[in-house]
Design a protein that fits this description.
Formate dehydrogenase/DMSO reductase fold, 311 residues, 10 helices, mainly alpha, globular
Length: 311
């Protein structure tokens, strides 16, 4: 598929904001470890801004952005419609939590609502792709697991970075927890990604040129894509990158999104160099954008089988 950068930004920024708010809500529920000042003046506004930026980014891949509101009409059958409904609800709940924080009001009900909405948004976003059965690279439960795991990881690293700018909210042993849990989450994400790459490498098309035209006993060799020039099909369903580019991008993903952040967090935990956490977040997010671009590029639409010669 041809990756769309608006979707890359939307899914990564929204996922990071979801992870941030998920952990904020979880920490508030289990121990009220985060003070209202930190939430009201830094963490929650930051998460809401990220959600707003992701929402703006999502409009850039629409042919008619002014009609985006109509997407909610098909909520009974469309995961995209459900996402369109859940995202504003999640933003509204986050805004309500922000209001309670800056006014020092206690409302424990808002935190489980935020957790449920963040999970619901991950499910809706992942299911948009996972439910497409004819794209084998996406039609697997690991698609959703990968979305959730990466969102939690980037959100946790963001929370740790924001805490550095509000040092009164957390003690040094808690920074150790940030590093250790970050290492664990990154390792889990790396394991998931390696499993996905191994699975995708072994996938084979379910249809062939022979089955497409009903001829089974003749060896068919395609010599032309059947068009004088390009078309919508050849523009939108091919990424037009060589295998060398994809191979190098996988290395960038492996090192940038996973390995280098893991090593930096290990060093930060051992040397108490917690100022490295924002650098870890930045490196991880660059790798995360590459990972999401590759997620779209690796998807092989069945129609690609019949447009093999692109000139």
């Amino acid at each position: 598929m041809q990756p769309n950068f608006s979707l890359v930004f939307f899914t990564t920024l929204a996922g990071m904001a979801q992870g941030l708010i998920f952990f904020i809500a979880t920490l508030k529920l289990i121990g009220n470890a985060l003070p209202n000042d930190f939430l009201g003046f830094l963490a929650l506004p930051f998460g809401i801004v990220l959600l707003g930026l992701s929402l703006i980014a999502s409009f850039f891949h629409l042919g008619h952005p002014e009609r985006a509101w109509r997407a909610a009409h098909m909520w009974r059958t469309s995961w995209l419609s459900r996402e369109v409904i859940v995202l504003p609800l999640f933003m509204a709940a986050a805004a309500l939590a922000w209001f309670f924080s800056i006014t020092n009001q206690s409302n424990n009900l808002i935190w489980p609502i935020l957790i449920l909405l963040s999970i619901a948004l991950w499910v809706c976003t992942a299911q948009i792709y996972q439910c497409i059965r004819f794209i084998q690279e996406w039609a697997h439960p690991l698609t959703m697991v990968n979305f959730i795991a990466l969102g939690l990881t980037s959100g946790w690293l963001l929370l740790g970075s924001l805490l550095l700018f509000w040092p009164d909210t957390i003690l040094q042993p808690s920074f150790q927890l940030i590093c250790h849990l970050g290492i664990l989450l990154l390792f889990v994400c790396l394991t998931i990604k390696l499993t996905i790459w191994k699975r995708n490498k072994n996938l084979r098309p379910k249809s062939t040129l022979n089955s497409a035209i009903g001829i089974r006993q003749v060896s068919i060799r395609q010599t032309s894509m059947g068009l004088m020039g390009g078309s919508f099909n050849t523009r939108e369903f091919f990424h037009n990158q060589t295998e060398t580019v994809l191979s190098n991008l996988r290395k960038i993903i492996f090192f940038g999104a996973y390995l280098i952040p893991i090593l930096l967090l290990i060093y930060a935990a051992q040397s108490s160099s917690y100022g490295l956490i924002p650098a870890v977040l930045l490196i991880h997010y660059c790798g995360l954008m590459s990972e999401r671009w590759m997620f779209f590029a690796e998807a092989n639409h069945p129609q690609n089988l019949y447009y093999q010669r692109i000139s």
